[in-house]
Amino acid sequence: MLPALAIFTALSLAAVPAAAQRHDHDPTPAPHADESTRVRRVSLATGVALDVAERGRRDGKPVLFLHGYTDSRVSFARVLPALPAGIRAIVPSMRGHGDSERPECCYRPTDFAADAVALLDALGIPRATIVGHSLGSFIAQRIALEYPERVDRLVLVGSGYSPRVAAAVEFLQVVNALQDPVPAELIRDFQQSTLFAPVSAEFFSKILGESGKLPARVWRDVLNALLQHEGMGDLGRIRSPTLVVWGDQDQYWTRDQQEGLLRLIPGARLLVYEKIGHAPNWEAPGRFAADVVRFLEGPVPVARRDEGGTPDVVKVERIRHSRVRLRTGVELDVAQRGRSDGEPVLFLHGFTDSWYSFTPMLEQLPPAIRAIVPSQRGHGDSERPACCYLIRDFARDAVALLDALGIGQAVVVGHSNGSFAAQRIAIDHPERVKRLVLVGSAARPGSKPMRELNAFVQTLRDPVDPAFVREFQVSTIFKPVPPAYLDRVVEESYKLPARVWRDALAGLLSDTATGELDRIRSSTLVVWGAHDGLFARSDQDALVGAIRGAQFVGYPDLGHAVHWEDPARFIADLVKFLELPEQGAIPSGRPDTPMPPRGEPHAHGAAAPPGPMPLLAGLGDWSLRVTTGSAEAQRYFDQGLRLMYAFNHDEAVRSFERAVELDATCALCHW
Q1: Are 158 and 141 in contact (CB under 8 A)?
Q2: Are 193 and 12 in contact (CB under 8 A)?
Q3: Peptide bond preceding 463: is omega within 30 degrees of 0, i.e. cis?
């Protein structure tokens, strides 16, 4: 076995053995193709001839079935006999696959989509239901977007909102090394990795034979074109009733990918097959055929959530998504949550992230906040123009988004790369910024870790190494985050081609806002985790010192992405900041006491409130064990350290003095 293929065997420990029998989960007898399935050669206006199977009455309801990567019309052989005669099933082997022609070029999703429409033309069919599995599902999406008048209903099987998932990117490295003949062992491992429930040995053998017909160049060209395709982000334009079919053991396109489809495609429904893998049409053909028929014969579906707890149909309702075309020439994927008349807060994510970066906190925000969360140009499912990834470009997009939404002024919250765009907005468009929150930021983006990262990023080429993507994202956190969330964050970063990685980071490091920060007049909160590996404490000192009246919140137990690591704490501090009067001070005794305005000394000699220093709540749990026999002295010492981290020097001194009062022998307490 090729070493890089180990991911597929690891993903399929429960995969089908070659001699396995049919699985119990499909109550309908597994049929076999018979004499009623007609096969012929059809020449298309696109210049290729396809091998096409048909079944059912010629005047029946037309349904076009599109198979997966390296498969053929055989992929649906166990489904067709279970369909009623009133359905005219049309099942081509797509270009390059099965016994269809294999042209030298052109294996993009748009090429497959053009072939499918040309096939309908050749058969005299103006409109059909499109059923697509895996690769075929992304072709089906493209047909629904480019030829909406040709699509009656849409069924997406083993699909997702983006083809660029970790397992596919990993497999691309294997595929790009292939030479003819493609090893039979690789073909078997690949196809087994798509299954969870067993299929018959006879059928699986046919599938392997069909994949074995493809030369290495078709394996390479199809997968490269699919993963480089950047047009999947406009799924919100699909208007066909859509059914998403997913096996809960699918190791390629996960539950997050399904919920993404529901979020993006208006009215889409999700049907979940338990203990089924990536190919429900292979593993449960009778059940799959019955569900497709019910979908075709039923009313136009309305997305809902079942009452039983674990739904067959899931709709993400509280976060609203839309595609917004900006006057700057790009179209962004934008999430919103909260009342439309609420306080507008624009959230700008970090380098290679997307709107999803803020999901841990979106559901916890009060409804009075209208959260506006775009995936910035080049990121997530937003458009990726060929040029222009300077911080000024991101800032102009943000202002254009506010214009498009009819918002005159907003609070702007920026994390990492987004924080530098937020700085630029506050400098160039001060009238648009009500308040400013900078998370994981700095006065200058060119720290040593950032320069080292950039030196490596500038060497990246497609496909970007998945191991590097994960390592990069993991390096930004200190406190662990839920694994499913981290996986989705990594998936979002996988979507970026190497050129966007290179251009966006080079654009960030070329930013020259440092000398202009004193022009910022918005009330500003700087938020930082003490374990930030990209920007140090000295960077925070410089930033707070450069922005007049800036306030500072330090989290001693968090890293670069505080809103991932402790969203509830970040939200509490954000809401507290938003409720302050303009340029107001945060009450003393909290870890987020503001820095004095520039040019004014720290008021260590100011009069303290009367009475002994109290123990304060909400300062975190950071502790340093000192030599003392008094538990109370230890608590006051730890409180002093936490207040020092937050620049609250007066209250820190009072805490240390109280520790000394409780135990005069504590040497460090005298610090």
Answers
A1: no
A2: yes
A3: yes
Are the CB atoms for 319 and 265 separated by under 8 Å? Answer: no
Q: Which two tokens stand for residue 14?
A: 């429960």
Per the CB < 8 A criterion, the answer to whether 602 and 649 are in contact is yes
In this prediction, residue 432 has a pLDDT band, given cuts at 50, 70 and 90, of very high
- Residues 287 and 83: their CA atoms lie apart, in Å, by 11
Strands (E) in 124-281, as ranges, are 128-133, 151-157, 242-247, 269-273
Using the structure block, give the residue that is written with the tokens 């870790």: 449
| Residue 540 contacts residue 566 (beta carbons within 8 Å) | no
CB atoms within 10 A of CB 289: 24
The separation between the first and the last C-alpha atoms of the chain, rounded to the nearest angstrom, is: 63
> How much is the pLDDT for 168?
87
Query: In which region does residue 314 sit, left (phi positive, over 0), alpha (psi from -120 to 50) or beta (all else)?
Result: beta
What rounded mean pLDDT belongs to the chain? 85
User: What pLDDT is recorded for position 652?
Assistant: 80
Residue 583 has pLDDT above 60, yes or no: no
pLDDT in tens, 456-475: 999 999 888 888 999 999 99
Break the chain down into helix, strand, coil percent, rounded to 5. Answer: 40, 15, 45
Asked, as a colleague might, if the bond just before 181 is cis with ω within 30 of 0, I would say yes
Buried b (16+ CB within 10 A) or exposed e, 364-373: ebeeebbbbb
More confident position, 237 or 299: 237
| 62: its two tokens | 């037309």
CA 286 to chain CA centroid, Å, is 33
Task: Look up the pTM and report it.
Answer: 0.54
The packing angle between helices 135-146 and 109-122, to 10°, is: 70
Nearest 5 degrees, angle CA 323-CA 327-CA 331? 25
CB atoms within 10 A of CB 423: 31
Angle formed by the axes of helices 466-474 and 166-175, nearest 10° = 140
Question: Which secondary-structure segment (H or E) carries 224?
Answer: helix 216-228
**Where do the DSSP E strands lie in 305-405?**
320-325, 331-337, 343-348, 369-374
Question: Which of 19-28, 59-68, 470-479, 499-508 is the least confident region?
Answer: 19-28
Length of the chain: 671
Segment (H or E) for 38: strand 38-43
421 and 348 in contact (C-beta within 8 Å)?
yes
CA distance 549 to 295: 60
Residue from 503, 475, 349 nearest 416 by CA: 349
The dihedrals phi and psi of 457, each to the nearest 5 degrees, come to -60, -35
Q: What is the H or E stretch that residue 116 is in?
A: helix 109-122
Q: Which residue reads 């055929």 in tokens? A: 289
State pLDDT tens for residues 327-358: 999 999 999 998 888 999 999 999 999 999 99
Residues 436, 425: Cα–Cα separation, whole Å: 10
Q: Is the pLDDT of residue 618 over 70?
A: no
The answer to whether 27 and 287 are in contact (CB under 8 A) is yes
